[in-house]
Amino acid sequence: MPVNTSLRLAQHLSPAYIRIAGPSTKFVKYVDNEDKFGDHLSEDGNNVVVTPSMWFGINEWLSLANLTPVFGINDVETTRGVWNPKSTLPLLEISDKLNVTCYWQLGFGKNC
């Protein structure tokens, strides 16, 4: 589907929230370096790597569609049973730098 078509379809849903979260959240890694990840897969091939330009593109598309994103943050990584926010820091820094407007959700599932 061409981008213009998908954008027009999404615009008809607005204004709305779009939740991007779920079990696959643990396989998404955010990096602050474009150069190392040309194919957007981690070295082991198990994780999708989101670079700043990808993150900007996703959020720009959502903004053009007038959709407010709610992004799920990976809460699987823990230290002694407590969530370790260090894995999320690159995402938050990129979002701040790109002036991303969104909501954050820690975790996912029926309890969220």
UniProtKB/TrEMBL annotation:
One of its GO terms (cellular component) is extracellular space. PANTHER family: HEPARANASE. This is Uncharacterized protein. It comes from Rhamnusium bicolor. The lineage of its organism: Eukaryota, Metazoa, Ecdysozoa, Arthropoda, Hexapoda.
